[in-house]
Batch of 2 targets.
Target 1
Amino acid sequence: MRRLLPIFVVLLAIVAILVEPVNASRPKQQPISSPIVDDTALTRFIIEILPDSTYFCITGALDPTRSGNSETALLFQTVRVVCPDLTAMQRAVRALKDCKEIKIKKLRHDIEKARSTDPAGYRGITVRFVWQDQEKTIQLLTFQQLRWLLWASTILPNDPKADTKANRSYAIAVSDYLDGIERGESPTKIPYAADFGLPQRFDLYQPLADDEIAFTDTVAEITTSFVRGITAFAPTDSALAEFKLLATNETFAETDSSMFQWQCREFFSSGQVLPNIKTLSSEGFRQLVPGNYAFAVGADNTVRFTKITESNTRRWSQLPHALLFCNQEVLTSGTFVIERDTIVHISKINIRSHTLLGNLATETEPRQLSDQRLTTLGRFFQALDRLGISYHGILISKF
C-alpha cells in the first residue's frame, strides 16, 4: 500500500496541472461566502465605520450551530450590531450605505411590523454585502429586538415543520409587546403562552423556581487559597498579585435566558435606560459621582458599568450584570463603591456571593462557587492597571 502512495501523489499533481489552465481562463469568481464563525476581523471593521452613538455593542453569532430554515438560521449565525434605539439603527444603516469599502447586495427592513413569515415575529434589519471579495451578512437590532431573539432562540423550534400557528401567533405577540416598550408607549398586557394554548415554559417571563437562584449565607466567609476565615479585607500587594495570578481567561454566562428577561423588565420598569451603561475609561472615571455601581469585564477586557438604582424588587434583580454585555459571557462581574474626598476613588469591591449563581455550575456548592468567582476579580484589577486607575487601600468583600 505504501508503494502506491507516491504514484497516487504524482497522479494528483498531473490532474492539478491539467485543471489549472481551465480555472485560469474562467471569468472572475463571485465573492466567496465566509464560514459562520465569530468574525473578529469583520467586527473590527464594523466598529471602525459605525459612529459610537449608533450602537450599544457589537457581538458575535448567537448560535453558530443553529439549524432549520436557512433564513431563520442566518439570524442566529451572524454578527449582531445592538443599537440603543430605532433612530440609532437608521443612522447605522446610513453609515453602512456611505461606506465605500463595501457593496451592499441586499438590505431588508423588518421594523414597522413583525414578520409573519419565517421567522415569525422577527424585527430588525439584515444587511448582506461584499467586503474584501467576501460576502458577509450582519444584522442590526435594537436592545428590545435582541430580547425577542434571545427568547426565540430557546422557544421556537429549529425545524420549520415543527412550527405551529399557535407558536407563530405568540412569537408575533411577544414581538409587538417588546416593540411597544421600544417606542415608549403605555404598557400593554404581557402576552402569556397560555392565551395561545401553549405551555407555560414558552412565556417571555417564565416563573423562576426557588432552585434557580442559589443562596449562601447572608455573609459568607472568604475561603480562597490565600485569604480565609474573614468576610472583608484590605489586600496587601502580595494578595492583589495573587488575585491577578489566579484570574483565568475562562468566561462564564452571568445569567440564563429567563433571568435575563426578568432583569430587563426590572431594569426598565425602575426608570433606568441603556445610555446609563458606559465603558470605563480614565477620563470618565474622574467624572463619577459617589455611589454603588454594577460592573462586568467582557471577554475583550473592556469594563462596562452602570450606577445601581435601588428599587422595591428582589435584591437579585437590582444588579443588571446581564445587561452590561447583552447576555454575553464575561470574565468577571460584581459591584464597586465610589467615594470622593480629595479625589474620586474606588473604596470597595465585591461579588454578590449569594445571588446570581443559579445555573452557573450545577455540581458546585454555592459557597465554593462564590469563592471561585471572587478570584476572578483579578481581571478587574488588571483592567484598572491598564486604565491607570488607582485602587490603593481598596476593601474587598463578599456578601
Target 2
Amino acid sequence: MSLELNAKMPYMRFNWAMHSARTGRLSWEERGIFDAVRCELWAVVGCRMPLAHLCRLLRIEEASEDARRIQGLIALGLLTVDAEGVVGEPVQVAEFAAAVELGKINAANGKKGGRPPKLGPDHRSEF
C-alpha cells in the first residue's frame, strides 16, 4: 500500500461532543493514543495506513503497553483493521471522503464562476 500525504486538507472538522462521547470510557493513556493515531491517519490520503507503519510512526514497540492499548481501541471498535492489516478510524475515514467530495463540488462551482453576487438594496427590477 503506497501512502500519499494529505497536503490538500491540512485541517479536519472536529466535533468535541462526539469525540468526548466516544472516548469517555477510555483511560487517559488510551485517549492520548487514540488522538495521536487520528493525527497520523489524517496526514495520509484516505486516513488509512498499515498498522505496522502507524506503530513505527508513533514509536510503539510490538509488545509494549501502548501496543496493547491500540489493540484495545480496535477491540472497542474505535479503530478498524482489515485483512491486510490496514488500520483506519471509521468516523475520520467518512469525514475525509466527505471533505474530498465537497472539494470536488466547490471546484466545479468555481469553474462556473462561483457564487453570483448578491443584489444590493438599490437594485430595482426591470419589470
